[in-house]
TrEMBL record:
Keywords: Glycoprotein, GPI-anchor, Lipoprotein, Membrane, Signal. Residues 224-411 form the COBRA C-terminal domain. This is COBRA-like protein. The gene is LOC113728640. It is found in: Cell membrane.
């Protein structure tokens, strides 16, 4: 038994199990989006003399995490000696060794095919339904019609009586690492409506895998931070120092990198940023602008400090109890998301198409930014400017949790009212002392 435990601890399996346990107990589960995932489905549409024709669909069920450029990339391992005879709507990046096929050359003979989406300008012969989006998938809450992509492939080299074998070891890059996919399993065959919904058609078989994201597995540093300000206090609570990394000792430098390197020593995947104390590519600023009789107004600004990257189809998620009341966003699209077991409401904001849906990169002089004002109705039973109530509980940018300042650094009311009031019982010694003092009693 001891020998077995020793071999387990020294094996890669132990490391994999440890990663899975840590992932499940921490950040693979998002309480603001508990059902979020990317589901990959294989639907067998018809059988052929040596295999089958399958439609593969990548569906993004994350409410606010989208798949950005350069898009999704999926792969798997064939169970047998399958080859891909042809594809439409996507392509395999490598053909592999197809020298054993003399009369017809397959599209891919790789045991581990690597699949990419076509760009929107793909030729008609390379297209299929719901394809060719450059691998970009919108978040489900923003636009469900753009949250999925599919392609078709003809799989063969299986023999005449085969009904197909499930692929193994599905991998998903969307676009980078961080996704873990479950084993591909048999499920109920998919059913679709035709003839205007008057007839239902069912595929022969359906296989599915569910992929979830973990920032732990992605090994990412934070990408954003939050700063705060108010109309009643001139002080600004800046992003915490070193939120996303620390700047170099040379404080006169105006250009920094996300990895603390000199810009002259850059590698291709290193971001160039404006030098700041927080060193984040993005900053979200929450400014309490006005306090009216039955409403209050906030200005929300997202700033891009990255000199080499625009953020297309960005979104910002804000958790705040004030969104339990009606609110109006003047320059962003917005929606309040359903939450289960979360104490505060969650609002999702994103840009208006062709107006501010792209957060432009910074230059050496100024940062790129988008902004809106938000008017919120007051809940007279809960609204207050004391104790930091009017500031967000949590903010996400493109699904990434932003670093928040500590509560004791929040802007205070002029009379110090934003400090946490002490419990009433803590005043008891002072009251006893004053009582004895007034009565003339000496200690």
């Amino acid at each position: 038994m001891e020998l077995l435990l020793y071999r387990l601890c020294c094996s890669n399996l132990f490391y994999v199990l440890l990663v899975i346990i840590i992932c499940r107990l921490s950040d693979c589960y998002d309480p603001l989006d508990p059902n979020g995932n990317i589901t990959v489905s294989f639907d067998i549409l018809q059988y052929t003399s040596d295999g089958y024709v399958a439609r593969v669909t990548i569906q993004n069920f994350y409410l606010y995490r989208h798949v950005d450029k350069p898009g999704w990339r999926i792969g798997w391992t064939w169970s047998q000696n399958e080859v891909i005879w042809s594809m439409s709507g996507a392509f395999a990046t490598h053909q592999g060794n197809c020298s054993s096929f003399k009369f017809q050359t397959p599209h891919s003979c790789k045991k581990f095919p690597d699949i990419l989406d076509w760009m929107p300008d793909a030729l008609p012969q390379n297209r299929s339904d719901a394809c060719c989006k450059g691998g970009i998938l919108d978040a489900w809450a923003i636009d469900p019609s753009k949250s999925f992509s599919s392609f078709e492939m003809t799989v063969g080299n299986l023999g005449g009586n085969s009904t197909g074998y499930r692929p193994l070891n599905l991998t998903l890059l969307a676009p980078g690492p961080g996704y873990t996919c479950s084993p591909i399993i048999d499920t109920d065959p998919a059913v679709s409506s035709v003839i205007g919904g008057r007839r239902e058609e069912q595929v022969y078989r359906t296989w599915k895998s569910t992929c979830t994201f973990s920032s732990y597995l992605a090994n990412k540093t934070p990408v954003c931070c939050v700063s705060l300000s108010t109309f009643y206090n001139a002080a600004i609570t800046a992003c915490p120092n070193c939120s996303c990394g620390c700047r170099e000792a040379d404080q006169s430098r105006t250009l920094c990198t996300s990895q603390g390197m000199s810009p002259s020593d850059l590698v291709s995947d290193t971001d160039i940023l404006q030098c700041t104390d927080h060193m984040c590519p993005l900053r979200v600023h929450w400014h309490i602008k006005n306090n009216f009789l039955d409403h209050w107004r906030v200005k929300l600004t997202i700033s891009n400090y990255n000199l080499g990257r625009n953020y297309s189809n960005w979104n910002v998620l804000v958790q705040h109890p004030g969104f339990s009341q009606n609110s109006t966003s003047y320059s962003f699209n917005s929606i309040v998301l359903p939450t289960i077991g979360v104490p505060d409401e969650v609002a999702l904001f994103w840009g208006i198409e062709y107006y501010n849906d792209e957060l432009l990169q910074a230059d050496k002089v100024q940062v790129g930014s988008v902004t809106t004002e938000i008017l919120l109705r007051k809940d007279m039973d809960s609204f207050t400017l004391r104790n930091g109530w009017a500031f967000p509980r949590r903010i996400y940018f493109n699904g990434e949790n932003c670093e928040m300042p500590l509560p004791d650094t929040f802007p205070m009311l002029p009379n110090g009212g934003s400090r946490i009031d002490p419990p009433h019982w803590s005043l008891l010694p002072i009251m006893v002392y004053l009582t004895y003092k007034i009565s003339g009693f000496r200690f």
